[in-house]
Amino acid sequence: MSTESLHNRRERLAARLRGVIAGPHVLSSDEELKPYECDGLSAYQVVPLLVVLPGSIEEVQAALRICHEEETVVVARGAGTGLSGGALPHAEGVLLSLARLNRILAIDPDNCCARVQPGVRNLAISEAAKPHGLYYAPDPSSQIACSIGGNVAENAGGVHCLKYGLTVNNLLAVEVVTIEGERVTFGGGGLDGPGLDLLALVTGSEGMLGVVVEVTVKLLPIPQRAQVAMAAFDDVETAGQAVADLIAAGILPAGLEMMDNPSLRAAEDFVHAGYPTDAAAILLCEVDGGNEEVSEDIAKVRQRLLDSGADEVRTASDDSERARFWAGRKAAFPAVGRISPDYYCMDGTIPRKHLPRVLREIARYSDESGLRVANVFHAGDGNLHPLILYDANNPGELELAEEVGGRILELCVEVGGTITGEHGVGMEKINQMCAQFPPEELQLFHDLKAVFDPGTLLNPGKAIPTLNRCAEFGAMHVKAGDLRFPHLERF
Amino acid sequence: MTDHDIGTELAERVRDAAAARQPLRLVGRNSKAFYGHAVDGETLELAGHRGIVRYEPTELVLTARAGTPVSEIEAALAANGQMLPFEPPSFDGEASIGGAVAAGLGGPRRPWGGAPRDLLLGITLLDGRGRILRFGGEVMKNVAGYDVSRLMAGALGTLGVLLEVSLKVLPAPAVEESLVLTLNHEHALARVRELARQPAPLSGACHVDGRLYLRLSGNAASVEAWRTQIGGDGGNEADIWRDLRDHRLPFFASQQPLWRLGLPPATPRLACEQSVATDWAGAQRWVHSDCSGSEIRTEVAKSGGHAILFRHGNDETPVFHPLDAVRQRLHIGLKQVFDPAGILNPGRQYASI
Question: Interface pTM (ipTM) of the complex?
Answer without folding.
Answer: 0.97
